[in-house]
TrEMBL record:
Superkingdom per UniProt: Bacteria
Protein name as catalogued: Homocysteine S-methyltransferase
Residues holding Zn(2+): C201, C266, C267
Pfam families, alphabetized: MTHFR, S-methyl_trans
GO biological process: methionine metabolic process; methylation; tetrahydrofolate interconversion
Cofactors demanded by this protein: FAD; Zn(2+)
InterPro entries in alphabetical order: FAD-linked_oxidoreductase-like (IPR029041), HCY_dom (IPR003726), HCY_dom_sf (IPR036589), Mehydrof_redctse-like (IPR003171)
Protein's pathway: One-carbon metabolism; tetrahydrofolate interconversion
Keyword rRNA processing listed: no
Length: 619
């Protein structure tokens, strides 16, 4: 009798974890490889689960695909490992248990760079091994990404009539990562021909039962559940799971009440947990009716997003706009910083931009100074946000804080790596790069966290991307801009440009884009500054004539700075012919220089506007 026939009339017990069990025994390398080198041990664990009462066991092949095996240089051993794994499970099962060939999901919570074609290849390789070796059914487990599971299920259903179990994993008890309600997801899997649909991993019994309360008993499939033992804890350098077998035993009947017919365990479970389930439910009669607590898709409050200002990308499309960077100090005295901010406010700038530990050098946090500028001086802070210092949790919590404080203008950057900075031993986090950060922020504007959790409100961020035209190939840099636009960038802010030729080159290469650019300009403060930028900062080239002008004033710092301002004014004149946005960078907190330049740019901008107004009204 195939195990689907059995499931028609009785609950079956499945096995528990293999990976975490081996890890608890000290295996911290590729445990799937043990199917080859420690076949007997693997068979012993399978037997321990069968002795504990499992009717159905699974091959130890969850991560035995080329995408995951390549981490260990084992990508060419897919066939060997999967075939050995099936043989191990069958040898242990004899005729005492059914054997499922397990294939795990690849896409996790982060936006994955794995393409559908790679997923298909990875899946097919494993599938054919399992079919050739002969299994009683297939178990597709730990799929966070519904698209991935639907893709592989469709392939498998075409290839075989064997029973297929398709299981998703949830971050949130109710919804998949893409916000599909769990009930809808399982129905879709049933529609694609899965014989058993269900949940495994990530959630322990409590949350998995909460999710199952929202699931109807399928009409043409059976329901399965493989909860984790508990949340993991990290002690003495190792992960542990705590949920004990008694706790599992108490949950068993509740799984039955939710209509589950195949009940096993996932991470952290052991033969004791399975024994507990078997003692409660083995051979028991399944329920056929239940009251479902269907949840609707979360309603994201459609209140107007919390926005105090017109987004900069809208302003700069309408008229010339000047923003100025004034970096948070490296020391705790903020007097000069606030003096500078006041001077820039008087110069009439649209926004003051605050770097995030630029060059990986520690500075006062930009959100705290930004908030003071906003609340005390009524200025509009634009907060740079680098991926380098924060993981996905930190980035999101930081963004939620910025929203709460009403700071909606963000420059999303990957960030200079920690090794360039003043704490070279610090680690760069880079959970995401600027592309995904832009996407994360845009998702929050839809009221959803990066993993798709409902935030209850929409944020109103306007997101800039960084543009570095000081590279060998501006065309390549523009390709990055195009990619950032695809990820949701609203406008760009560039590194400083030091020559008219570069301004024109950038204009020529970007004029096809609708997305506005604030072009960067920074006054040189002296000859040493000019030589440093020209010779030591990758990509920055300053015309010989300019460096000569600065060199002539080497002994007169005041005059040199005046020269730097004069050069930048002439660049502003050209820049305003080509771009609407001017981004001035304040060197060494010398705000008097950028305040003067901002006033100049604003005056030139109003002259241009006056002239175009006159042109439009006269004719
Ligand atoms: C306006 C502006 C403000 C900035 N503010 C800060 C700040 O506050 N804090 C801070 O730490 N850093 C800051 N930076 C520096 C920035 O983080 C680095 O210059 C970064 O390497 C490029 O910008 P990004 O972070 O958006 O990188 P991304 O565009 O995401 O690029 C990431 C990686 O790709 C590389 N890359 C970028 N462009 C190219 C290209 N054309 N060809 C090949 N490889 C490329 C980069 O070197 C980097 O390794 C700022 C840069 C700009 C332009
Ligand atoms: C990471 S969830 C899948 C786990 C797998 N069934 C194992 O225990 O090895
Ligand atoms: Zn698991």
């Amino acid at each position: 009798m195939n195990f689907l026939d059995k499931l028609k009339n009785q609950i079956l017990i499945a096995d528990g974890a293999m990976g975490t069990l081996l890890y608890s025994f000290g295996v911290d390398t590729c445990s799937e490889e043990l199917n080859l080198s420690q076949a007997e041990q693997i068979q012993n664990i399978h037997r321990a689960y069968i002795d504990a009462g499992a009717d159905v066991i699974q091959t130890h092949t969850y991560a035995a695909n080329y995408l995951k095996l390549q981490r260990y240089g084992l990508e060419d051993s897919v066939k060997e490992i999967n075939s050995a794994a099936v043989r191990n499970a069958k040898k242990a099962a004899q005729s005492n248990a059914y054997v499922l060939g397990t294939i795990g999901g690849n896409r996790g919570i982060k936006t994955s760079s794995i393409t559908i074609e790679e997923l298909k290849r990875s899946f097919r390789e494993q599938l054919y091994c399992h079919l050739l070796e002969g299994v009683d059914g297939l178990l597709f487990e730990t799929f966070y990404d519904l698209e991935e599971l639907e893709t592989v299920l469709t392939i498998a259903r075409k290839e075989t009539n064997l029973p297929i179990i398709a299981q998703v994993s949830l971050q949130d008890p109710g919804f998949l990562q893409d916000r599909t309600p769990v009930n809808e997801a399982l129905k879709r899997l049933e529609g694609l021909g899965a014989d058993v649909v269900g949940l495994n991993c990530r959630l322990g019994p409590h949350h998995m039962l909460l999710a199952l309360e929202q699931v109807e008993i399928p009409k043409h499939a059976f329901l399965s559940a493989y909860p984790n033992a508990s949340l993991p804890t990290y002690t003495d350098g190792k992960f542990h799971y705590e949920g004990d077998a008694d706790y599992f035993q108490k949950s068993a009947q509740r799984f039955r009440d939710e209509g589950v017919r195949l009940l096993g365990g996932c991470c952290g479970t052991t033969p004791d947990h399975i024994r507990a389930y078997a003692s409660e439910l083995k051979n028991s009669i399944p329920v056929t009716e239940k009251v479902v607590k269907l949840k609707q898709k979360p309603i994201i409050v459609e209140s107007p997003p919390k926005r105090e200002y017109t987004p900069l990308q809208e302003i700069v499309k309408e008229r010339p706009s000047v923003i100025v960077e004034l970096d948070p100090p490296r020391k705790l005295d903020t007097t000069k910083f606030f003096e500078g901010a006041k001077a820039l406010k008087e110069a009439g700038i649209d926004s003051i931009t605050l770097a995030d530990n630029s060059l990986a050098t520690v500075r006062i946090s930009n959100e705290s100074l930004g908030y003071l500028l906003k609340s005390e001086l009524g200025m509009r802070p634009l907060i740079h946000l680098a991926c380098r210092d924060r993981n996905i949790i930190g980035l999101q919590s930081h963004l939620m804080g910025l929203h709460t404080l009403g700071m909606n203008d963000i420059l999303a950057i990957t960030g200079d790596p920690a090794r360039v900075g003043d704490f070279p031993g610090a680690s760069s986090v880079y959970d995401v790069s600027s592309f995904e950060l832009i996407q994360m922020i845009k998702q929050m504007n839809e009221g959803l966290s990066y993993s798709g959790k409902d935030l209850g409100q929409k944020t109103a961020f306007s997101v800039a991307g960084a543009f570095n035209p000081n590279v060998r190939s501006v065309e390549k840099a523009v390709k990055r801009l195009e990619k950032k636009i695809q990820f949701g960038a609203d406008y760009f802010i560039s590194q400083p440009v030091f020559s008219e030729e570069k301004l024109i080159e950038v204009y020529e290469n970007t004029k096809h884009l609708d997305t506005p650019i604030y072009i960067g300009l920074m006054p040189l403060t002296g000859s040493k500054n000019a030589e440093f930028l020209h010779n030591e900062v990758p990509g920055i080239k300053i015309a010989d004539s300019i460096r000569e002008r600065m060199a002539l004033l080497n002994d007169n710092p005041l005059q040199a700075a005046r020269e730097g301002v004069a050069i930048t004014k002439s660049l502003i004149d050209t820049a305003l012919d080509l771009f609407n946005g001017i981004y001035l960078i304040t060197p060494f907190l010398r705000y008097e220089l950028t305040a003067e330049l901002a006033a100049y740019a604003n005056q030139r901008a109003s002259e241009i506007r006056g002239a175009s107004y006159a042109e439009n009204t006269i004719f």
